């Protein structure tokens, strides 16, 4: 193996895979993950925290027949890599057989020139710039009338590079950056305190809203929460604000996950090709979206990804499959493998969003008449077998299409399969993360209150 203290990543992966095959592995894949990050935290106008991170890690998965083992290390010296290979091969020889393990099908691997996803921002901010952003956000939040204290402002920048090489000839690499700004403050009235926060992340720092805008939003959200009341238990229309509406998609993602389907713990098992959302509703995946927080040129097993509708006109079109779960179901990988440096692959989506409708949030509120506008969720609970779901929420009660008062300490609950079939999508889709949705109205939801 190369003995350089800082070996070239491509050569390092080639050395490790070659050594694994020489040591007795039938096949192998190796990954390197490099990361640099800087985060600044401020509170009450003063610097409070500075965090720097630099890491470079190696992961190796080896196969001997239908046995596999994974190992990882942050020490990339030749001596450690040699021990890593020896340990991986020895572990694989002792591992129980897994009839579904193996490298991805060669004809499914991404090939050719990778698309330019524009994920890397070369403008790397220093600590002073990040501190200025954090202070500006917090100052704007604290300036809102009614705000009495601060939990702080923060700003961060990070860069990651992922490189994958397999013994059957695949090699791929991509890198990306993420910048973020946030603030969180406390408002108080008559001895009662309420918290409000706002934050955004983007591939390019220049794509973020201004720190002052984010901070003002955080402060206003805290003040708007003052005077919150509980509700008596009832059934009423509920609207989930677009900032948190993507949380309603999480049960779908979990239920169409190949590993969940193979274990039989999915409330959507047997629903492939059937309607799970209202007519006209699409759940769209865009892995090649420029600057997308979930964009990628290939999945974590090297399989090519593609734009697709997971739900087309309300009908479920596919499971989310990696190589192992696809083999168990007698299908082929859909390019959704997701893994860390060690352990078997799971699955994940790549830039998922629900197609927006035609009504604004104000129109959804007017259409509903009276109900609950949810602006935050906490402690969701889901029975993956039958879809029984509940979550704590806070937000605002509205009547005759107008906000009446803020609400806290209530729970909404129901059967997710039933709730999903009654979704009405608003028009206010924003791409805030890797999974996004417009505001969503459900005409009648059980609300448990005082």
Q: Would you write up a description of this structure?
A:
By secondary structure, the protein is an alpha+beta fold. Helix content is 21%, strand content 38%. The chain contains 10 helices and 19 strands. The strands form 4 sheets. Strands 3-2-1-4-5-6 form a 6-stranded antiparallel sheet. A 5-stranded mixed beta barrel has the order 7-14-15-16-19. Strands 10-9-8-13-18 form a 5-stranded mixed sheet. Helix 3 runs parallel beside helix 4 (211-224). The relative contact order is 0.13. The model has no long low-confidence stretch (mean pLDDT 95). Residues 234-449 form the Metalloprotease TldD/E C-terminal domain.
Please tag this protein with its features.
single chain; 450 residues; alpha+beta; Double Stranded RNA Binding Domain; PmbA/TldD fold; 3 domains; six-stranded antiparallel beta sheet; five-stranded mixed beta barrel; 38% strand; globular; TldD/PmbA_sf
Draw up the topology in text.
Blueprint: H1 9-22, E1 27-43, E2 46-64, E3 67-73, H2 78-94, H3 127-142, E4 147-166, E5 171-189, E6 192-202, H4 211-224, E7 234-240, H5 242-245, H6 250-255, H7 258-263, E8 283-285, E9 308-312, E10 315-316, H8 323-328, E11 337-338, E12 346-347, E13 352-354, H9 361-368, E14 371-382, E15 388-399, E16 402-415, H10 416-420, E17 423-425, E18 435-436, E19 440-448
Parallel strand pairs: 7-14, 13-18
Antiparallel strand pairs: 1-2, 1-4, 2-3, 4-5, 5-6, 7-19, 8-9, 8-13, 9-10, 11-12, 14-15, 15-16, 16-19, 17-19
Helix pairs in contact: 3-4
Organism: Peiella sedimenti
Domain Metalloprotease TldD/E C-terminal: 234-449
Domain Metalloprotease TldD/E central: 122-226
